[in-house]
Design brief:
It contains 7 helices and 11 strands. It is of the alpha/beta class. It binds cytidine-5'-triphosphate and ligand LQXTBERG. Its EC number is 2.7.7.60.
Amino acid sequence: MSAATGIWGLVPAAGTGTRMKAALPKQYLPLLGRPVILHTLERLCGYARLQGVLVGISRDDVHWEKMRPVIFPRLMGTSEGGATRAATVLNALIVLAKTAREDDWVLVHDAVRPCIRHSDLDKLIDAVSADGEGGLLAMPLTDTVKRADAEGRVIETVPRQNLWRALTPQMFRLGSLRDALKRALADGVEVTDEAAAMERVGARPKVIEGRADNIKITLPADLVLAELYLKQQGPAP
Ligand SMILES: Nc1ccn([C@@H]2O[C@H](COP(=O)(O)OP(=O)(O)OP(=O)(O)O)[C@@H](O)[C@H]2O)c(=O)n1
Ligand SMILES: C[C@](O)(CO)[C@H](O)COP(=O)(O)O
């Protein structure tokens, strides 16, 4: 990676959190007394290797302004979210491209993964910037995997060798990722992560084993787990 290559953070935070079934979007639910997203932004904005962090929020978002996380260094502001995570990320990349360069790296990290550690960010950046094809934090599957039908009856046991759970951040070059997401959306293909969009155009992203505590807050029980992890981690990001 040339010395001039920039590294940017992009945080999709425009979801509604339907699976959480809460009164407000889950990225704004309280976690140790602060909104989930503030924990995530504190981690990312406090990470010196990022030049800036852009957050994609819904145009209907009424919580961001109330929160005004003005204290964070590197926080660039917000871009308009879309109907899907992919659309939110694409819109943010288009905004980021006004400041960053086409071959700069972008780390896309879910707003609802507040337990991300700086050591995992280092691991991802060091591995991917040396490799060039892009990559993502992930965890190898350790349970047996079943595919079931609509009635909950097992159809098959899926061989789990070489199966990984994708986490975030996912790290790709700005221009390539923007174009790949544009292509997926134009083809009507809903990709649930950035790597899937890149794979569609022939990339072979690298999986980098991440920490088990980098959980995505999706269901109520995840909030309890995130609280335990943050308490266990202590102040060290
Ligand atoms: N249109 C969307 C949908 C999701 N996200 C973001 O993508 C991340 C991961 O998505 P997910 O966990 O699915 O969040 P939600 O879509 O809010 O959850 P649900 O699927 O339960 O509605 C979250 O930070 C979420 O805010 C986004 O920026 N724009
Ligand atoms: C990007 C991601 O967190 C990787 O596992 C996941 O795909 C997000 O999925 P969601 O349904 O938008 O939570």
